[in-house]
Design brief:
alpha/beta, 5-stranded mixed β-sheet, 9 helices
C-alpha cells in the first residue's frame, strides 16, 4: 500500500488541535498564539473548517462585522475575526485549498490551522495538541465510551501537548502519567481566565447577583466554573450543544425562565453572542452580558513552542 506524502504549503503551518471531541479550548489558544506571532513580526493567517455553516464555498473573512453571517462562515471564524482584526481567516472543508486561496490574496508567513491534528494530508511544521484538564482517566476511551476521536497513543505525533483550564480543576495524576508515556518533556499547563464581563449595547455595569448563564460550547462546565470562581451567583445555566444555532423560541424561553427566577441579567460566551445578537434581544427587559475569557500559557513555555517557528 502506497503511503501518500503530506502536501506542503509555501508558508509555515502550525496546527492547534486535539484527540477528543470539542471543549479543549482551541479557539482561545489560537487567539493566544496568533497574538504572540503578530507581536514577533509575523504575518498570520488562520484556516478553519467553519463548523456548522451552510455555505460550502471557500471564503476568506477579514474583520467580521454585524453583516458577517454564521451560515457563511461558522460561529468560530466570526468570533476569531472579531478578536483578531486585520487577520485573514480562510473557511472551507478542504483546508489545503482554503489555505491556498488565503495565501493567494494575502501576504502571510504563518498559518494557524484550527483543529488540524487529524488533517494528515497537509504537512505541518508544528503540531500542538490540547487536552482538557477536566477529562478524567475514564474519559480517555474512544467514542462512545469516552471522548477520544483517536486512540490516546496517537498523541505521540504531537510536538507539544498543553493541558487547558488547569487553573479550574486539579488534573488527575493518572492522566498526566498516561500522557507522559507518549510525550517526553513537551507537556505544558495553561489557564483559562475570565477577563471581563461587558454589555455590547450599553455601558451598564454587571451585577454578580441573580444571573442566568447561557452557553452552547463544547465544555459548559469550565464556562460555569470560571463564573463561580468570580463569585457570580448563577440561578440557572442553559446548556446547549456546541455550535448550537439559537432561534427566537430559545430566547423567549430563556427570558421567561429568567423572569420566573427574578434574574437580574443574562451572561453568555463571546462565541454564543455571535449568534444570539442576530435575534431579537434588544427589546427584552434583561441585558445580555458577554463574558470575555482568555487562554494563558507561561512565558517560558510559549517561547519554547514558538522558537520552532520564529
Amino acid at each position: 500500500m502506497k503511503i501518500l506524502k503530506p502536501k506542503k504549503l509555501p508558508v509555515k503551518v502550525i496546527s492547534v488541535g486535539n484527540i477528543s471531541l470539542g471543549g479543549t479550548g482551541k479557539t482561545p489558544a489560537i487567539i493566544f498564539f496568533a497574538d504572540h506571532l503578530i507581536k514577533s513580526g509575523k504575518k498570520v493567517g488562520i484556516v478553519s473548517r467553519g463548523y456548522g455553516r451552510k455555505n460550502r464555498d471557500i471564503k476568506v473573512l477579514i474583520n467580521a462585522d454585524n453583516n458577517s453571517k454564521v451560515e457563511h462562515y461558522g460561529d468560530e471564524p466570526i468570533f476569531l475575526s472579531s478578536r483578531l482584526r486585520n487577520i485573514p481567516i480562510a473557511v472551507g472543508a478542504n483546508k489545503f485549498n482554503a489555505a491556498l486561496q488565503l495565501i493567494k490574496k494575502n501576504k502571510v508567513d504563518v498559518l494557524l490551522f484550527d483543529d488540524g491534528f487529524q488533517t494528515r494530508k497537509i504537512y505541518r511544521d508544528l503540531d500542538i495538541v490540547l487536552l482538557n484538564a477536566y477529562n478524567g482517566i475514564k474519559d480517555y476511551r474512544m467514542v462512545p465510551f469516552g471522548v477520544l476521536r483517536e486512540p490516546v497513543k496517537c498523541i505521540g505525533r504531537a510536538d507539544f501537548v498543553i493541558f487547558t483550564k488547569d487553573n479550574l480543576i486539579n488534573l488527575e495524576s493518572e492522566v498526566s502519567h498516561m500522557i507522559g508515556k507518549y510525550v517526553n518533556d513537551n507537556v505544558f499547563y495553561s489557564s483559562y481566565k475570565l477577563e471581563k464581563i461587558f454589555c455590547e449595547s450599553s455601558k451598564d455595569n454587571f451585577n454578580k447577583d441573580k444571573v442566568i448563564a447561557v452557553s452552547g460550547v463544547g465544555d459548559p462546565q469550565s464556562f460555569e466554573s470560571s463564573l463561580l470562581k468570580e463569585n457570580i451567583n448563577i440561578l440557572y445555566h442553559f446548556k446547549f450543544r456546541d455550535h448550537y444555532n439559537y432561534d427566537q423560541a430559545d430566547i423567549n424561553n430563556i427570558v421567561k425562565a429568567s423572569k420566573t427566577m427574578n434574574a437580574l441579567s443574562i451572561v453568555t460566551t463571546e462565541k454564543d453572542y455571535v449568534k444570539l445578537k442576530k435575534l431579537d434581544i434588544s427589546k427584552i427587559d434583561l441585558k445580555f452580558f458577554i463574558v470575555k475569557s482568555n487562554f494563558y500559557l507561561k512565558k517560558q513555555s510559549t517561547q519554547k513552542i514558538l522558537r520552532k517557528i520564529i
